[in-house]
Amino acid sequence: MLTIIKHPLIDVKMAILRDERTKSKEFREALEEIASLMCFEAFKDLPTYPSDEIIKTPTGAAMHRTKLKNKVILAPILRAGIGMVDGIRKMIPTARTGHIGMYRDEKTLEPHEYYFKLPDVPNPLVVVIDPMLATGGSANLAIDAIKKRGFKNIRLICLVGVQQGVDAVEKANPDVKIFLASLDDRLNEKGYIIPGLGDAGDRIFGTK
Protein backbone atom coordinates (compact mmCIF):
# COMPACT_ATOMS: atom_id res chain seq x y z
CA MET A 1 0.00 0.00 0.00
CA LEU A 2 3.07 2.27 0.21
CA THR A 3 4.36 4.25 -2.77
CA ILE A 4 7.57 6.26 -2.46
CA ILE A 5 7.54 8.86 -5.20
CA LYS A 6 11.03 9.28 -6.61
CA HIS A 7 11.82 12.17 -8.95
CA PRO A 8 14.95 14.32 -9.38
CA LEU A 9 12.96 17.55 -8.96
CA ILE A 10 11.46 16.28 -5.71
CA ASP A 11 14.91 15.34 -4.42
CA VAL A 12 16.29 18.81 -5.22
CA LYS A 13 13.37 20.59 -3.54
CA MET A 14 13.44 18.20 -0.58
CA ALA A 15 16.99 19.33 0.13
CA ILE A 16 15.64 22.88 0.44
CA LEU A 17 13.16 21.71 3.08
CA ARG A 18 15.79 19.77 5.01
CA ASP A 19 18.24 22.69 5.15
CA GLU A 20 18.00 24.40 8.56
CA ARG A 21 18.92 27.72 6.93
CA THR A 22 15.80 27.77 4.71
CA LYS A 23 13.46 30.61 5.69
CA SER A 24 9.67 30.27 5.98
CA LYS A 25 8.90 31.80 2.55
CA GLU A 26 11.27 29.46 0.69
CA PHE A 27 10.11 26.54 2.83
CA ARG A 28 6.46 27.13 1.93
CA GLU A 29 7.26 27.51 -1.77
CA ALA A 30 9.26 24.27 -1.93
CA LEU A 31 6.59 22.44 0.07
CA GLU A 32 3.85 23.51 -2.35
CA GLU A 33 5.97 22.56 -5.37
CA ILE A 34 6.70 19.07 -4.01
CA ALA A 35 3.01 18.57 -3.23
CA SER A 36 2.18 19.44 -6.85
CA LEU A 37 4.81 17.06 -8.20
CA MET A 38 3.53 14.22 -5.99
CA CYS A 39 0.08 14.53 -7.59
CA PHE A 40 1.21 12.96 -10.85
CA GLU A 41 1.91 9.65 -9.10
CA ALA A 42 -0.64 9.82 -6.29
CA PHE A 43 -3.57 10.39 -8.65
CA LYS A 44 -2.46 8.63 -11.83
CA ASP A 45 -5.17 5.96 -11.44
CA LEU A 46 -8.14 8.29 -10.93
CA PRO A 47 -10.95 7.39 -13.34
CA THR A 48 -12.17 9.99 -15.82
CA TYR A 49 -15.11 10.26 -18.19
CA PRO A 50 -16.08 12.34 -21.26
CA SER A 51 -18.67 14.81 -20.00
CA ASP A 52 -21.60 16.22 -21.97
CA GLU A 53 -19.78 19.54 -22.25
CA ILE A 54 -18.42 20.11 -25.75
CA ILE A 55 -15.24 22.11 -26.32
CA LYS A 56 -13.81 23.32 -29.62
CA THR A 57 -10.09 23.20 -30.37
CA PRO A 58 -8.23 25.96 -32.27
CA THR A 59 -8.44 23.76 -35.38
CA GLY A 60 -12.24 23.72 -35.17
CA ALA A 61 -12.57 20.16 -33.93
CA ALA A 62 -15.23 19.40 -31.32
CA MET A 63 -14.49 17.22 -28.29
CA HIS A 64 -16.10 16.19 -25.03
CA ARG A 65 -14.42 17.74 -21.99
CA THR A 66 -12.71 15.12 -19.80
CA LYS A 67 -13.61 15.24 -16.10
CA LEU A 68 -12.71 13.27 -12.99
CA LYS A 69 -15.30 10.65 -12.10
CA ASN A 70 -14.83 11.09 -8.34
CA LYS A 71 -15.13 14.32 -6.42
CA VAL A 72 -11.99 15.00 -4.40
CA ILE A 73 -11.85 16.31 -0.83
CA LEU A 74 -8.53 17.51 0.57
CA ALA A 75 -8.34 16.90 4.32
CA PRO A 76 -5.20 18.50 5.76
CA ILE A 77 -4.32 17.72 9.35
CA LEU A 78 -3.93 21.06 11.10
CA ARG A 79 -1.80 22.87 11.08
CA ALA A 80 1.13 21.64 8.99
CA GLY A 81 -1.06 19.91 6.41
CA ILE A 82 -2.32 23.31 5.24
CA GLY A 83 1.10 23.94 3.72
CA MET A 84 0.54 21.23 1.07
CA VAL A 85 -3.04 22.08 0.11
CA ASP A 86 -2.37 24.82 -2.45
CA GLY A 87 0.18 22.67 -4.26
CA ILE A 88 -2.34 19.86 -4.71
CA ARG A 89 -5.21 22.23 -5.47
CA LYS A 90 -3.21 23.71 -8.35
CA MET A 91 -3.37 20.26 -9.96
CA ILE A 92 -7.00 19.57 -8.93
CA PRO A 93 -8.67 23.01 -8.79
CA THR A 94 -12.12 21.45 -8.40
CA ALA A 95 -11.14 19.75 -5.14
CA ARG A 96 -12.97 20.85 -2.02
CA THR A 97 -11.16 21.33 1.27
CA GLY A 98 -11.98 20.30 4.82
CA HIS A 99 -9.89 20.45 7.98
CA ILE A 100 -8.97 18.00 10.71
CA GLY A 101 -7.56 19.49 13.91
CA MET A 102 -5.07 17.38 15.87
CA TYR A 103 -2.64 18.12 18.66
CA ARG A 104 0.02 15.86 20.12
CA ASP A 105 0.57 15.34 23.82
CA GLU A 106 4.25 16.20 24.24
CA LYS A 107 4.67 13.65 27.05
CA THR A 108 2.83 10.62 25.66
CA LEU A 109 3.18 11.59 21.95
CA GLU A 110 -0.47 10.52 21.59
CA PRO A 111 -2.67 12.56 19.17
CA HIS A 112 -6.00 14.11 20.12
CA GLU A 113 -8.73 15.39 17.78
CA TYR A 114 -10.14 18.86 18.49
CA TYR A 115 -11.78 19.81 15.17
CA PHE A 116 -13.34 18.01 12.20
CA LYS A 117 -15.10 19.52 9.17
CA LEU A 118 -15.40 17.99 5.70
CA PRO A 119 -17.61 19.06 2.80
CA ASP A 120 -20.79 17.05 2.28
CA VAL A 121 -20.02 15.30 -1.00
CA PRO A 122 -21.38 11.87 -2.04
CA ASN A 123 -18.79 9.11 -2.55
CA PRO A 124 -15.68 11.31 -2.78
CA LEU A 125 -12.00 10.47 -2.67
CA VAL A 126 -10.77 11.90 0.64
CA VAL A 127 -7.07 12.77 0.69
CA VAL A 128 -5.52 13.08 4.14
CA ILE A 129 -2.57 15.47 3.98
CA ASP A 130 0.26 15.88 6.49
CA PRO A 131 3.95 16.59 5.82
CA MET A 132 5.09 14.04 8.43
CA LEU A 133 4.26 10.38 9.02
CA ALA A 134 6.06 9.67 12.30
CA THR A 135 4.37 7.27 14.73
CA GLY A 136 1.29 7.06 12.53
CA GLY A 137 -0.96 8.08 15.43
CA SER A 138 -2.29 11.31 13.92
CA ALA A 139 -2.81 9.71 10.51
CA ASN A 140 -4.76 6.79 11.98
CA LEU A 141 -6.85 9.07 14.18
CA ALA A 142 -7.70 11.24 11.17
CA ILE A 143 -8.52 8.23 8.99
CA ASP A 144 -10.70 6.73 11.73
CA ALA A 145 -12.56 10.03 12.12
CA ILE A 146 -13.19 10.13 8.37
CA LYS A 147 -14.43 6.55 8.28
CA LYS A 148 -16.79 7.19 11.20
CA ARG A 149 -18.47 9.86 9.07
CA GLY A 150 -19.14 7.27 6.36
CA PHE A 151 -16.33 8.02 3.91
CA LYS A 152 -14.62 4.95 2.46
CA ASN A 153 -12.28 5.98 -0.37
CA ILE A 154 -9.25 7.45 1.43
CA ARG A 155 -5.61 8.14 0.58
CA LEU A 156 -2.77 9.51 2.69
CA ILE A 157 -0.15 11.88 1.25
CA CYS A 158 2.87 12.86 3.35
CA LEU A 159 6.28 14.27 2.51
CA VAL A 160 8.50 12.24 4.80
CA GLY A 161 7.82 9.21 6.95
CA VAL A 162 9.48 6.33 8.76
CA GLN A 163 8.75 2.63 8.62
CA GLN A 164 7.21 2.69 12.10
CA GLY A 165 4.52 5.10 10.94
CA VAL A 166 3.94 3.25 7.68
CA ASP A 167 3.53 -0.04 9.55
CA ALA A 168 1.08 1.53 12.00
CA VAL A 169 -1.16 2.88 9.24
CA GLU A 170 -0.98 -0.30 7.16
CA LYS A 171 -1.92 -2.41 10.18
CA ALA A 172 -4.87 -0.24 11.27
CA ASN A 173 -6.05 0.83 7.80
CA PRO A 174 -4.81 -1.61 5.16
CA ASP A 175 -7.27 -0.21 2.61
CA VAL A 176 -5.62 3.24 2.59
CA LYS A 177 -2.94 3.96 -0.01
CA ILE A 178 0.09 5.82 1.38
CA PHE A 179 2.27 8.16 -0.69
CA LEU A 180 5.61 9.53 0.53
CA ALA A 181 8.32 11.61 -1.10
CA SER A 182 10.91 10.06 1.27
CA LEU A 183 11.13 7.16 3.73
CA ASP A 184 13.56 8.40 6.39
CA ASP A 185 15.67 6.44 8.88
CA ARG A 186 14.04 6.60 12.30
CA LEU A 187 12.37 8.59 15.09
CA ASN A 188 14.38 10.19 17.88
CA GLU A 189 13.41 10.10 21.56
CA LYS A 190 11.08 13.10 21.06
CA GLY A 191 9.22 11.47 18.18
CA TYR A 192 10.83 13.60 15.47
CA ILE A 193 11.80 12.07 12.12
CA ILE A 194 15.55 11.70 11.50
CA PRO A 195 16.99 13.13 9.29
CA GLY A 196 13.60 14.74 8.69
CA LEU A 197 13.05 18.45 8.21
CA GLY A 198 12.22 19.69 11.71
CA ASP A 199 8.79 20.83 12.87
CA ALA A 200 6.99 21.45 9.58
CA GLY A 201 4.29 23.61 11.18
CA ASP A 202 6.79 25.93 12.83
CA ARG A 203 8.80 26.24 9.63
CA ILE A 204 5.75 26.90 7.46
CA PHE A 205 4.33 29.60 9.69
CA GLY A 206 7.58 30.99 11.14
CA THR A 207 6.54 30.33 14.73
CA LYS A 208 10.06 29.37 15.82
Descriptors:
33% helix; eight-stranded mixed β-sheet; 31% strand; 208 residues; Rossmann fold; alpha/beta; three-stranded parallel β-sheet
Compact description:
The chain has 208 residues and is α/β, with parallel strands linked by helices. 33% of the residues lie in helices and 31% in strands. The protein has a single domain (2-205), classed as Rossmann fold.
What does this structure look like?
This protein has a single domain (2-205), classed as Rossmann fold (3-Layer(aba) Sandwich). It is built from six helices and 15 strands. It has helices at residues 8-18, 24-42, 82-91, 137-148, 163-172, 200-205, and strands at 2-4, 48-56, 62-68, 72-78, 96-97, 99-104, 111-117, 125-129, 132-133, 153-157, 160-161, 177-180, 182-183, 186-187, 193-194. The strands form four sheets. Strands 1, 4, 5, 6, 7, 8, 10 and 12 form an eight-stranded mixed sheet that branches. A three-stranded parallel sheet has the order 9-11-13. Strand 14 (186-187) and strand 15 form a beta hairpin. The longest helix is centred in the first third of the chain and has 19 residues, at 24-42. The radius of gyration is 18 Å and the shape is globular. The two termini are 35 Å apart.
